[in-house]
């Protein structure tokens, strides 16, 4: 097992070693895993390519490190505890041995249905253990999974299927979320009308709702696995073979497929999990994310299972059937490490601390936060009321592209500071650059957050478009990986993330490209042009504010706004619906025709007085109109 950091001096020591001799540092950690063949070289890299290889020419299968490696000592230990949406329904506990059998059986099922090493498989499923089984079965046979959050629209799903030319879709009939029953299979049916690569669809029965099954293409999960062997020999993968693709939004165009590979991702997701959360054998760990996001990949499925942990998978929402549900689950399973998003904390905080009264919460030892900056008020509420002042709050900064946590306190080791992600993990060499690309050394500086040396789970490419990867992450500052976030390093050398400096907004911890939302709005036939910006939102962190020029003929303003919301929901999904829509006569533009977002961002955030110099605008008069009618 990986040796955990135990003291602050131990952290500093490891950090120093990891910078001095990264190859030695990571090879010692990688030695804790099972490899069919050891690497020829620990790391080989060039950020100009970009071309990064970790554990070069090593051979492994990540699922052998989750399953076979744990069977002897942990076979009967719960791997996954599943808590259903409805507390009255039975929960499920799946031991490592059972998980092994389920994964082997489903691996064989995938193969029987034509999936081969290298094929892409889309997973569009609810939060049930079978979703983790599906991911692991793909990994076991060398197929590349791409999980799509089951709240995305049919068009978003179709775009992803087409981009990666998926051969198979794994889905469910429906999905429970709070008091709602959500259509899932019908969304897949709709998506498949505009795709041509999918040969088979395997459907897990969750809600029992009526669905249409297409003869020859669609099979029920329970029928597909019936009688299939529970023994399977894992495919031997190269360290740099693709493990999965996960689509995420950027500042321009359609979402891109972030690619992670087998060896480096395995080592880093496990290492970061064990250290940040200080997981000890026997602990019960719970991350409330959905597996459709990177947090679910790295810190519900891969990291914890590689560490032989017990990971809870919760199907429902924080407030169903009541706002005490999270705390009830913590007590029920005696959760030791709890990991959630600031938006959930703020939403629960709004119900008041009385909601927490009936619960003991005395098993909790570590509280994690992820996805967006956590404001001081929410940090204190989490620390004082949930953690009763006993539990360190680990504010973990990372991204889909980083594969794992890069900046975070090590629980009970790193002294915390409200709303600070604190210090980089060993192996992570941060740099703060000004807009001209000069590295700002020393403390008390603020600028663009970059990384100057690869860590094992850095993205390798964006699927099917390597140049886009280079342009997006490795071209703003030559020789650096650019995160897109602004950051401050304070007088103690502690890092505080300030939020995105590009046109990406973060709504309830979900990443959205402003251009992507604009494109969706513009699909409405009456829309002439639109501009979308983020604005501060009490619960969501950021809300979506859309300024829209419309042809109003024959429509009331309210109807039109409603139609625009429906359009966005259909094209991207409900999570992208604008919170505010303002119909405007024009958009402030520079003489070269570029929309001045800076002005719109200020207006949307309520700062309508200090707009700076607007005299260079092509149309300064529209600013007054927009300002007067701000929502
Ligand atoms: C963006 C990445 C990391 C998994 C979930 C989101 C923001 C993430 C923090 C944090 C401040 C944070 C950043 C980042 N972000 N964690 N602890 N403090 N900001 O992954 O969807 O790829 O989004 O989320 O802006 O760039 P993602």
Q: Any descriptors?
A:
single chain, 631 residues, alpha/beta, seven-stranded mixed β-sheet, five-stranded parallel β-sheet, 31% helix, 24% strand, globular, binds 5'-O-[(S)-butoxy(hydroxy)phosphoryl]adenosine, AMP binding, ligase, ATP binding, ATP-binding
Give a short synopsis of this structure.
With 631 residues, the chain is α/β, with parallel strands linked by helices. Residues 248, 293-295, 370-373, 395-400, 421, 483-485, 497, 499-500, 506, 509, 511 line the site of 5'-O-[(S)-butoxy(hydroxy)phosphoryl]adenosine.
Largest sheet: 7 strands, mixed
Q: How far from one another are the termini?
A: 55 Å
Silhouette: globular
**Rg calculated over all Cα atoms:** 24 Å
Description:
This protein has 19 helices and 30 strands. The protein is of the alpha/beta class and 631 residues long. Strand 16, helix 11 and strand 17 (310-314) form a beta-alpha-beta unit. Helix 1 crosses helix 2. The model has no long low-confidence stretch (mean pLDDT 96). Bound molecules: 5'-O-[(S)-butoxy(hydroxy)phosphoryl]adenosine (WT7). The site of 5'-O-[(S)-butoxy(hydroxy)phosphoryl]adenosine has 24 residues, from helix 11, strand 20, strand 24 and strand 25.
């Amino acid at each position: 097992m990986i040796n955990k950091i135990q003291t602050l001096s131990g952290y500093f020591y490891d950090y120093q070693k990891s910078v001095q001799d990264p190859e030695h540092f990571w090879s010692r950690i990688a030695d804790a895993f099972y490899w069919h063949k050891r690497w020829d070289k620990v790391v080989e890299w060039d950020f100009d390519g970009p071309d990064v290889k970790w554990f070069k020419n090593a051979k492994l299968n990540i699922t052998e490190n989750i399953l076979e490696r744990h069977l002897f000592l942990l076979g009967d230990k719960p791997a996954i505890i599943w808590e259903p949406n409805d507390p009255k329904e039975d929960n499920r506990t799946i031991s490592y041995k059972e998980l092994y059998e389920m994964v082997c059986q489903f691996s064989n099922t995938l193969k029987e249905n034509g999936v081969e090493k290298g094929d892409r498989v889309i997973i569009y499923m609810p939060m049930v253990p079978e979703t983790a089984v599906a991911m692991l079965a793909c990994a076991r046979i060398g197929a590349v999974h791409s999980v799509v959050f089951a709240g995305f629209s049919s068009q978003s799903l179709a775009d992803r299927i087409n981009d990666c030319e998926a051969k198979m879709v794994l889905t469910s009939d429906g999905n429970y979320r709070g008091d709602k029953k959500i259509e899932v299979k019908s969304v897949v049916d709709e998506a498949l009308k505009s795709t041509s690569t999918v040969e088979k669809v395997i459907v897990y029965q969750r809600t029992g709702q009526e669905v249409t099954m297409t003869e020859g293409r669609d099979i029920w999960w329970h029928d597909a696995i019936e009688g299939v062997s529970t023994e399977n020999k894992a495919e031997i993968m190269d360290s740099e073979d693709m493990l999965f693709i996960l689509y995420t939004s950027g500042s321009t165009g359609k979402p891109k497929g972030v690619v992670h590979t087998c060896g480096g991702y395995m080592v880093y997701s496990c290492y970061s999990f064990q250290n940040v959360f200080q997981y000890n054998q026997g602990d019960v760990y719970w991350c409330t994310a959905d597996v459709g996001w990177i947090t679910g990949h790295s810190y519900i499925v891969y990291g914890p299972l590689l560490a032989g942990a017990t990971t809870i998978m919760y199907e429902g929402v924080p407030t169903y059937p009541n706002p005490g549900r999270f705390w009830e689950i913590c007590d029920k399973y005696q959760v030791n490490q709890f990991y959630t998003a600031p938006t959930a904390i703020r939403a629960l905080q709004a119900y008041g601390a009385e909601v927490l009264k009936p619960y003991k919460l005395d098993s909790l030892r570590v509280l994690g936060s992820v996805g967006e900056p956590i404001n001081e008020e929410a940090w204190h509420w989490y620390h004082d009321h949930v953690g009763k002042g006993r539990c360190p709050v680990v504010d973990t900064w990372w991204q889909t592209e980083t594969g794992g946590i890069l900046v975070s306190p090590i629980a009970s080791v790193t002294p915390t500071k409200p709303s600070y992600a604190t210090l980089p993990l060993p192996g992570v060499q941060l740099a703060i650059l000004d807009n001209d690309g000069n590295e700002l050394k020393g403390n008390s500086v603020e600028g663009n957050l970059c990384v100057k040396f690869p860590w094992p789970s850095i993205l390798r490419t964006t699927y099917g478009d390597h140049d886009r990867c280079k342009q997006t992450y490795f071209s703003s500052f030559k020789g650096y990986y650019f995160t897109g976030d602004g950051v401050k390093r304070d007088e103690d050398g502690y890092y505080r993330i300030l939020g995105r400096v590009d046109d990406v907004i973060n709504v309830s911890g979900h990443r959205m490209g402003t251009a992507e939302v604009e494109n969706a709005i513009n699909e409405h036939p009456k829309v002439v042009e639109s501009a979308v910006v983020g604005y501060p939102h009490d619960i969501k962190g950021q809300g979506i504010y859309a300024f829209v020029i419309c042809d109003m003929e024959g429509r009331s303003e309210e109807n039109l706004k409603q139609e625009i919301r429906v359009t966005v929901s259909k094209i991207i999904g409900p999570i992208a619906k604008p919170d505010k829509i303002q119909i405007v006569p024009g958009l402030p533009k520079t003489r070269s025709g570029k929309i001045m977002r800076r002005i719109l961002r200020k207006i949307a955030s309520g700062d309508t007085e200090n707009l700076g110099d607007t005299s260079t605008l092509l149309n300064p008069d529209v600013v007054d109109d927009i300002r007067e009618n701000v929502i």
